[in-house]
DNRLRE domain-containing protein
Amino acid sequence: MVPGTANAAQQPSRATLTPAEWVTTDSKQPYKSITTGDARVGAWRDDKHHIGKSYFTFDITRFKSTQLFTASLRTPEKAANDCTKPRSTQLWVVKPQDNITWAHQPWEITNVAPTANEDCVSPWVTWNVAEPIKKALERGKTEITFALRIAEQFQGKVEYGRTYDSAAVLSTTFNTPPGVPTDLKVGNGTCDAATNFHYEAQPAVSAIVHDADGTYGLEGRLAFWPVATPEQRVETGPLLAGNGSVSGWFPAGMVVDGGVYAFAARTEDGFVNSAWSAPCQFTADFTPPATTPAISSTTYRENGGPPGDGGQGLAGDFTFDAKGDKDIIAFEYSGLGIGSGRVNADAPGGKATITVTPATDGPVVHLGEGHRQGRSPFAWRGLPVLGAHDRAVRAASALRDRLAARDRVHRQPGRRIAVRLQDRRRRGADRARRRGPHGTQDAVLPRTGPGQARPQGLDRQRRRSEVRHLAAILHGQPTAAVGGRRPVGRARRREAHVHRDAEPDRCRVLRVQGR
């Protein structure tokens, strides 16, 4: 822990304590510890003449290893025997002891001056006890006891006696020094230069900061240097760390291929700074290996096509394979709705398997590699989580401008796509309708209005073009039929059967029938 060098980033913490123990002593009950009722000090009379003192013990363990700024003890008054007499109450720090009685009083060590108060009876009689508490902490004490009494020369005079509330209050402000940052990372990697390789010229770094007073307003600082030449160390200015972490990047121009580099972090709260963390090292590696790794999944097939495999919230395993390239020792991955991470191969050139649960619909998982000799190009594999429901709605919307009729679209299970273009005569307006595993939804498409004639003979080439267009939109969808109405002319029907081609991004028309 070292003194802070920046302006205070955090506000001091506050704590209010009540006594762990309190006791009143009575000269007429010299061997009794009184722990009920009010705290009596000075003299009072009933059928006897009494003299009393009250003692308050506080647990100060909370302030161990902290900076204590203020400590104010408030002893609320409840009554004064005679308001014409000045307040003569004193507060003393006493030597701790058990079983305090009038006959067995603790040794009074330090007299604490009161804060000025002119009221006869006041709930705000306060005492500055910061220094006594600091000294007790320096001596390793975990408790401190204060004695409330009337000054010796007035102690036996009844007119000077007073009654206090036993619920004294100790109010403090303090700062807990921040902890040393932990969980240092270069990218997603560890801090072992023998296994942590990075290909960026300015790798991103991060560390988790700690402060018992909370992280709001906390700051951090980073230091970077080449391991071979530590005199080239570069430190940043204060960096925001209120979210619980501090992050940054290596300075431009410092990292070169093949070098070993390190960074460290410390936490700053504006009052004191933590010690620097242990260094985190990595090796710069800008040369990629020759092999592009493979990725496979039994749940989410590569380019599985609509409506997709698995789905939002459904876990799936992914296996990464370096194909024997011993330059590859780890895999980095990311994707929509799955976050990012890094996993080591089971051996150089080996495999690794992860389980992820997509949090949203998404198209891809990206895979990169960590390795000894650089990285290979990023590979990506399809993770089609998009539901068939959304695909059908998109297909209907795309066809709206192509087919000037009200069309009916329904879907049935199967991998074959059948597209039917049917002309009807003197029938009412149709509605577009889709049925599937996700329910039923209507989509109304525009049609030609009354008196707007279409050509009597729709040429085959145009129909084939429309079929291909629809097949491309509905690629991978279950069976679909599309019907349209022509306001004039003889009923005509044409049908096309479309199958998925061997190439994943194509469909081909096998035959076109018409009558």
Summary: The chain has a mean pLDDT of 75.
